[in-house]
Specification:
623 residues, alpha+beta, 15-stranded mixed β-sheet, 42% helix
Length: 623
């Protein structure tokens, strides 16, 4: 367990170890240049340099030139920045400790290298140099030290994160880079052998120092947002525990690939620590994304004795699993808790939940039940269903459909970006859209997204007006024209994500009164057009790929979306300033399997072609 005392002690280790490392490197450098040791080493090292110079070939010149360039200052800084940004933006939660470890190692190694060269002045070998000689001492090798810090650091992270046989292949490949860079520097006449060894030592010691500060004592699957909370880093019991038994059952729906056995044990421990000892676990399958939850809920007796009563459904999976379970429990009065362990976890992000699975459950169980909206969607050839995040057609649905399952397992949501690159040139299509029974409006678009929430990974607000408790859904038509249009749309979305208050959009804030997001609104030169309403009817001139909460569904010409305000009870942490509607467990249920609509979202007659297909399935689910 990480404590505040441990965290405060870590910087002190850095203050002690860095001067020691500088002193060691300076002492060794002076020993090589100003002692009798130099008289013995210099003739031997000169023979090595001359042997490399005599054996040069055109092929070796090219290969070693590439290695030297790869370890140059510009390349090292560029790769380091790219990797640090990747650690912060690509995973489900920013990996601050690992990003600071990698970036800090490269920066500290460079600082120590500069400090050592101020005290140690060593000439480069007296052979023809194939690279321009920088105005620094030959000892230690800066190229080798920098490549050791960068690629050695990446090897450490790969060893912590990767699993399976590829883990050792990747680690070995990364660890081979610094020695190969060292050989290239010897071949090109830029360093003595002891300079290369000095660079390897400087980089290795830097990794040990910075690793002791940022990685020591941390589990690879921990997140930095919960580093000061008990049990988050070490998988221990949650901070709040009780011996009081649960009043009713807890049903845990588990996606077996997203929630492995180790995570399942942590979830089980969190539930038990909160008094939920009567747990029923259900595994999902490809054919049944909510497992046997519908059958279990069919036997649920809300006012009966504990054995028949379900108090909570815990969903361990991604947005697709959450959607399937929400489709079953919405309107039943059963509370839902989300354990985010999928690829995107967009609902958890928008509800302000921590993205460490066990921590999210721990904090949710410490919080309250709040009502959030769900969307109902149907269309030609599309089985009526509910969704909690987004439904869409066009570019985004094609991206979801074509993302490789193997790449999603290895790269997370980065796999979607690779799939998206294949569809950048897809043609636009004609779209007609009707909001709340109003006039039908016509557009051209590359994709249409209807969202119950609006924030994507990395804080990108695709639907800035969407809130999970607003009583409506928001729509965006995405239609960039040419490179300028793509840049305008991308720039608009990124600029919103970089605003200081952008993260606030993930919280529940209740129905918005901002007129700018209540009707039609176009931004980024018309590349993005927004609508908002309770009933959306979208028709396409040609059949389009379609998706619901990240799951690809059948192509079609139509999407019809209706919102169910407050229909889903969700366990969430208490958040200062949140104005989500709290729903009491005794809230009466209606015959149409929907909770009473709040006053700020008055009932609107729902078209029979939307409700009718849903009714038989809901009755079977045992609302």
């Amino acid at each position: 367990m990480t404590t505040l005392t441990d965290e405060a002690a870590r910087p002190s280790r850095l203050l002690i170890l860095v001067p020691a490392q500088v002193s060691l490197m300076v002492g060794w450098g002076l020993l090589l240049t100003r002692s009798s040791v130099a008289d013995v080493l210099i003739p031997a090292e000169d023979r090595v340099s001359r042997a490399f110079a005599a054996g040069r070939t055109a092929l070796a010149d090219t290969l070693t030139g590439w290695l030297s360039t790869m370890a140059g200052t510009e390349a090292i800084i560029g790769v380091a920045l790219f990797c640090v940004l990747g650690l912060l933006l690509l995973p489900s939660a920013p990996r601050w400790a690992e990003a600071l470890f990698l970036g800090g190692s490269v920066a500290l190694q460079s600082a120590i290298f500069v400090a050592v060269t101020l005290f140690v002045q060593r000439d480069r070998p007296e052979v023809p140099h194939l690279d321009a000689a920088p105005p620094t001492s030959s000892f230690p090798s800066g190229h080798v030290g920098a490549s050791t810090a960068l690629f050695g650091g990446l090897a450490v992270l790969a060893l912590r994160r990767l699993r399976g046989p590829w883990r050792y292949v990747v680690v070995t490949a990364l660890l081979l880079v610094p020695p190969l860079v060292g050989l290239s520097r010897l071949y090109r006449g830029m360093h003595h052998p002891t300079d290369v060894v000095g660079g390897l030592l400087n980089g290795t010691l830097t990794l040990l120092v910075v690793g002791s500060v940022f990685l020591a004592g941390r589990r690879p699957d921990s997140t930095d947002d919960d580093s000061h909370r008990q049990g988050s880093a070490a998988g221990a019991a949650p901070s709040v525990a009780t011996d009081a038994p649960s009043a009713g059952r807890v049903v845990v729906v588990r996606h077996p690939h997203a929630c492995d056995d180790a995570l399942a044990d942590r979830v089980r421990a969190v539930l038990e620590a909160h008094g939920h000892r009567r747990q029923q676990w259900i595994d999902t399958t490809a054919e049944r994304p909510s497992g046997d939850l519908a059958e279990v809920c069919a036997a649920h007796v809300a006012d009966g004795p504990a054995p028949e009563r379900i108090d909570l459904v815990v969903v361990c999976g991604g947005d697709g699993t959450v959607r399937a379970c929400a489709d079953v429990v919405a309107g039943t009065g059963i509370a839902l808790a989300v354990v985010p362990c999928g690829t995107g976890n967009l609902l958890a992000r928008n509800l302000g939940l921590p993205l460490d699975p066990a921590t999210a459950l721990d904090e949710a169980l410490d919080g309250d039940c709040f009502g959030i909206d769900v969307g109902r969607v149907h269309g030609d050839g599309l089985e009526p269903a509910r969704f909690t995040v987004m439904a869409g057609a066009g570019f985004d649905a094609a991206m979801v459909r074509d993302a490789s399952p193997a790449l999603k397992a290895r790269l997370g949501w980065l796999a979607y970006l690779l799939a998206a690159a294949r569809h950048l040139g897809d043609p636009r299509t004609r779209v007609s859209l009707q909001v709340d029974g109003g006039p039908r409006r016509r557009h051209r678009a590359r994709m249409v997204v209807v969202g119950n929430v609006g924030t994507l990974q990395g804080g990108l607000e695709l639907l800035p007006g969407a809130r999970a408790d607003s009583g409506r859904v928001d729509v965006v038509l995405f239609d960039p024209s040419g490179a300028v249009g793509w840049l305008a749309a991308t720039g608009h979305l990124v600029s919103r994500a970089l605003r200081p208050n952008s993260a606030a959009s993930r919280q529940l804030t209740g129905p918005t009164a901002d007129p700018a997001v209540s009707g039609r609104r176009s931004v980024a030169g018309g590349a993005l057009t927004y609508y908002s309403g309770r009933h959306i009817d979208i028709r396409f001139a040609t059949a389009q790929p379609r998706e619901v909460d990240g799951d690809a569904v059948a192509d079609g010409h139509r999407l019809v979306v209706e919102t169910e305000p407050g229909a889903l009870r969700v366990r969430l942490p208490r958040a200062p300033g949140a104005t989500a509607r709290r729903l009491e467990a005794s809230a009466p249920r209606r015959a149409d399997n929907a909770l009473p609509r709040p006053a700020e979202a008055p009932d609107r007659p729902v078209p029979s072609d939307v409700l009718a297909p849903l009714a038989p399935r809901q009755t079977q689910a045992g609302a």
